[in-house]
Design a protein that fits this description.
By secondary structure, the chain is α/β, with parallel strands linked by helices. It is about 35% helix and about 20% strand. The chain has helices spanning about 20-25, 55-75, 90-105, 120-130, 165-180, 190-200, 205-210, 220-225, 240-245, 285-290, 320-335, 350-360, 375-380, 410-425, 425-440, 450-460, 525-540, and strands spanning about 40, 45-50, 80-85, 110, 140-145, 150-160, 200, 230, 250-255, 295-300, 305-310, 315, 340-345, 365, 385-390, 390-395, 440-450, 470, 475, 480, 490-495, 500-505, 510-520. A hairpin with a 5-residue loop joins strand 22 and strand 23 (about 510-520). Helix 2 crosses helix 5 (about 165-180) and helix 11 packs across helix 15.
Length: about 550
Amino acid sequence: MVHPRAGQPATPEDLIDVDQVIAAYYDLIPDPANPDQQVVFGTSGHRGASLKTAFNEAHIVATTQAIVEYRAAQGITGPLFLGKDTHALSLPAWKTALEVLHASGVDVRAEREDEFTPTPALSRAIIVYNRDHSGPRADGIVVTPSHNPPTDGGFKYNPPHGGPADSDATKVIAARANELLGAWRSVARTPYERAAAQITRHDYRTPYVADLSSVINLDAIRDAGLSIGADPMGGASVQYWEYLADSFDLGITVVNRTVDPAWPFMTLDWDGKIRMDCSSPYAMASLIGNRDAYDLATGNDADSDRHGIVTPDAGLMNPNHYLAVAIQYLYGHRPGWNPQAGIGKTLVSSSMIDKVATKLGRTLVGVPVGFKWFVPGLSDGSIGFGGEESAGASFLTSDGRTWTTDKDGILLDLLASEILAVTGTTPSQHYAALADEFGQTSYARVDAPANREQKAKLGALTPGDVTATELAGEPILAKLTRAPGNDAPIGGLKVVTKSAWFAARPSGTEDVYKIYAESFQGDAHLAEVQAQAKQVVDSVLS
């Protein structure tokens, strides 16, 4: 149910007490025996709120020490790139991590204290270092809960390939962190002032921005004379968009340069919370309301790994729609890519992408949720583009080399401008043409209640557990619990018919499971698919 003030500006009553959130980080001590207070790595690292004793100093000490031990066991002895976003808990956790890393003798490469590091800039730094150095490999940590509310903190490990860590790594790190949680005070730490004075400072921004010309046609954007509005949404990309605006004559206006960990300038998301979700029309309401001021406008979440595209003709694009358009454009405008390079999508992304892939004659690589599944393909060039329905994607440089192996919201925002500059048509107009060709699609995600035991059961399903033979009036053609692109477990279920599908997977942070669904028969049929999907899943979980 949508909150009555969704899309409206935040009021003082909506804002966090920043001092209280930071004080709780230091004052509250987690109970190692309480599952809700343990270190848990989801698809994007460990996240939690300090006020709920789920993201506190003890967690970061233990997790950082676990990463130190893991990288040593893997023979990773090169520098560790350390970055943070603009959340209130990011700087305290960044400082804590620095203390532990320094005490362990890790060669830390960190931005200056008054700077922020987008996730893609850190991914790029790891990739470039390991490409240009034949010696010990580098890895990294990003302190970010991504688009989560201001109360939350997050901590993400990126191994030497530059992308999100696989479960082979995160399971080991989380298990060891929870072993250390009860004895976290015994972990060696260097006092922050001394550690900060001895680490190597790294400029993430300049090389990242300088290299953008290898992956985006900046000349076309410049020559088109576009008016582009870029909203960092109070996140880590603010200094990057400022640099682009001031240095490259691309017609960029930084819509909001304010950084405030309470995010008082935000409009409320669908549930009445402040959330920097650039794929949400409620969180993006201000930019949507001002869409006629620019030829194109864009947004990013707090760590800049997600994109939001706003056009004068359509407002905020559905992320699935934009992915389909981006794929069609890129595979027709990147002659330097391997002609056999496939298209990567998550199983919960729109089937419109399948239709575009067929039209292009390219192999579609369907993977479970999580950008980590695109890392091998983006590393060796076997996929040119990897994208998630949640507005996260990356793609190869123009000559077919790796750009990032983590999501890059800045990159996808700039691509939208390139599409408009080169074709004279907005991405949303391109999607309208795809819909005319292949049919209109209705797509939505809803949540349903599920306890910890039910979520575990859902994550372990096999096709034989599902007895249904029909969905919303159509025979079921496939029941998937493993991804067709790489045979990896999807941690849930996908059911497919001729004109519709649904997927169900447990939430990593809440007592719900998520139902993704799509229909090419309209909204009414989609609602029928969603209702029957819940019946199918609940029957299995009961």
